[in-house]
Amino acid sequence: MECLQVRDKKIQEKKLVEMSKKIREMFPDLFLIFNGSPLMAFDLGFEGVHLPDKEPSRKWLRDCKKNKNLFLSTSVHDSNSLKRTEKVKFDSLLISPVKNPFSKKSNLKPLGWDGFEFISKQTKVPTYALGGLVMNDLIKARKHGARGIAMSSYFFKKENL
Residue-wise pLDDT tens for the chain (161 aa)? Predict the structure, then answer.
């Protein structure tokens, strides 16, 4: 599945909403996932919502139930956070970091491909590898049980455009 997750933790919510509306207008047929509120994702016309690696709030869960058609994804960083996903019927899991991320300093030790595979084998939910990946990692990711890869800063480097 080709999709775009809209996320920017550094800008104000109002600007994020404006940016998200422009993205929806520019790409009317692209599957879009919003990193934030399920109600906001639905109001923006996005197909999905992403929950960071944390326990979902009651409000988040209630809002998801109101919008049952939303595609739900979440981040997983270890076996403990994988257990949290059993409480909600997620459609996909982003397991990270596989490698050191390009875009930010992470306090998390990279899982490596063996660590990714260990977590991925513990779930039936489709998994995507994330963290320091490049296009050439797709084949390796699939060999280790991933449905695909997720990348962010890779696309913003001049040499990759």
Answer: 678 888 877 788 889 899 999 999 999 999 999 988 899 999 999 999 998 877 788 888 888 888 889 999 999 999 999 998 888 899 999 999 999 887 666 778 999 999 999 999 999 999 999 998 988 999 999 999 999 998 765 444 444 44
DSSP character string of 53-84 = SSPPPHHHHHHHHHTTTSEEEEEE-SHHHHHH
| CATH H-level superfamily of 91-161 | Aldolase class I (3.20.20.70)
- Homologous superfamily of the 1-78 domain (CATH): Aldolase class I (3.20.20.70)
Start and end residues for every CATH 3.20.20.70 domain found in the chain: 1-78, 91-161
> How many other CB atoms sit within 10 Å of the CB of residue 105?
6
Cα 31 to its chain centre, rounded Å, is 13
> Which residues, 6+ apart, have CB-to-CB distance to 126 below 8 Å?
91, 92, 93, 147
